[in-house]
Amino acid sequence: MTMPVEQNWNARFSVRSDRKWLGFNSVVVTYAAAMADFALLLFASAAGHIAYQDLTFGFSDDPSVYIGIGLLVATMFVLAMAGAHTYRAAELVSFRRQLTAICTILPAVVVFLLTIAFFMKVGSAISRGAIASTTVLSLAGLLGLRVLWRSYLKRAAAHAAFPTHRVLLICPETTAVEPLSERATRNGLVITQTMRIGRDGSAAGPGLLEACSKHGIDDVDEVLIVWGDYGNLKVLDECLVTLRQFCLPVSVMFTGLVGEIVQGFAHGLGENCAFQTHRPPLDLFERAVKRTFDIAFSIGALLVTLPMCIVIAIAIKLDSRGPIFFWQSRKGYSGKSFRILKFRSMSVMEDGSDIRQATRNDPRVTRVGAFIRSSSLDELPQFWNVLRGEMSVVGPRPHALAHDDFYGTLIAQYASRRHVKPGLTGWAQINGYRGETPTVDRMAERVRHDIWYINNWSLWLDLRIVLQTMLGIKDRKNVY
């Protein structure tokens, strides 16, 4: 059972990928990206100076000084980015890594050059306003280029616009090939031949060499073994031994429990390698960053939504009898209980050992409640929980205690959700696992998304989730 999200079968991990990606010479992509950055920074330097002069003084003087500065910035920036290998095609499709690199290297280059200008006592000849406008314009342009590169390369891979790596797939006869083929196509690989190995080891052993030749091993660029039959590892070992006779890169992808383990962070342990299956709690700095974001965002949200909250409160009182707010016990960070605050959306106030999830056309939901639940407006008071430190803006959604007890006995990783504070929205919610979870399998999918978020947390990921939540607020599917 493998992680269904953000697990890219990526050609950049293959032995041959240092020079090729998607079967396309990555040197061309690297140089094109570097040249585009260089030209953009040079243009931004001149344009930023001219725009600042025109807006501030109504005229612009000779921009040659700033073109010279632009040449220095562009040269240093491109060399630093190239040294960090961020111009590789496989790196260009990762917007997160590109964002981190650009926001680190560009300010560092600008500060470095300004420091030199200060010590050389030529700073008076440089306009700080022009430098600021140039930096902003450069940053916007570089990020815009990254969006275009990412879109182009992913689209090209999905439509096989570039020649692809031809792959011979070797797997047990019970393996479903179609999902693997779809993932391969999205990542620049095409499965041209498939060789299945039976439980009895047929096609393995002495006959494997002949079987490989029969299945076109001489016509492929790479061999991929997908293995989940851990009671038959002897056959896998025989396959690997036989494949050493061919001058081709061979990769092994595990499924099931071992597949989940090897997806963890790998670190050396002497001569061996260990995989971290659970990320430790956020360190002091990460907690400080996340808490600062939570406080700032929740205060802003409470102030902005205050008029809306007053209207909702009046509507609840006019619509049905009962209190405006609803308090319910939930488990938070490290299993500590807290009382979550919501606008009342039902005619009942369940908070015991028997709580039933809301379903479509649920008679317990009031008329106002149906609207505020589908639009998530009933969650607005939870910003108070965030401000109190009981919740976070982004994190796994907290469930009722009765549901925690029920699913905790059925889903092995369920308790791992509490390694961070629960959130108003999360990675699972923006990936389609919002609202009712009528089956254990669907809850298991939500839990796997939550675990992925915990293991991959960053401030940028939180910002992305918040943005996608706001853009997708009109999607009321599965929310009752």
Question: Which helices and strands occur, and which strands form pairs?
Answer:
Blueprint: E1 20-21, E2 24-25, H1 26-57, H2 64-83, H3 89-92, H4 95-119, H5 128-158, E3 165-172, H6 177-186, E4 189-197, H7 208-214, E5 222-227, H8 233-243, E6 250-254, H9 256-262, E7 265-269, E8 272-276, H10 284-319, E9 325-331, E10 337-343, H11 367-374, H12 382-387, E11 392-394, H13 401-408, E12 423-425, H14 427-430, H15 440-455, H16 459-471
Parallel strand pairs: 3-4, 3-5, 5-6, 11-12
Antiparallel strand pairs: 1-2, 7-8, 9-10
Helix pairs in contact: 1-2, 1-5, 2-4, 4-5, 10-11
Q: What's the total number of strands?
A: 12
Task: Kindly state the percentage of residues in helix.
Answer: 40-55%
- Bulk shape: flat
- Strand neighbour order, sheet with most strands: 4-3-5-6
Q: Low-confidence parts lasting 5 or more residues at pLDDT below 50?
A: 1-25
The whole-angstrom Rg is 28 Å
What would you call the quaternary organization?
single chain
Which class best fits the helix and strand makeup?
Answer: alpha/beta
Annotation field: number of helices: 16
Overview of this protein structure:
Helix content is 50%, strand content 13%. The protein is built from 16 helices and twelve strands. The chain has helices spanning 26-57, 64-83, 89-92, 95-119, 128-158, 177-186, 208-214, 233-243, 256-262, 284-319, 367-374, 382-387, 401-408, 427-430, 440-455, 459-471, and strands at residues 20-21, 24-25, 165-172, 189-197, 222-227, 250-254, 265-269, 272-276, 325-331, 337-343, 392-394, 423-425. The strands form five sheets. It has a four-stranded parallel beta sheet with strand order 4-3-5-6, sandwiched between helices. Strands 1-2 form a two-stranded antiparallel ribbon. Strand 7 and strand 8 (272-276) form a beta hairpin. The longest helix has 36 residues, at 284-319. The radius of gyration is 28 Å and the shape is flat.
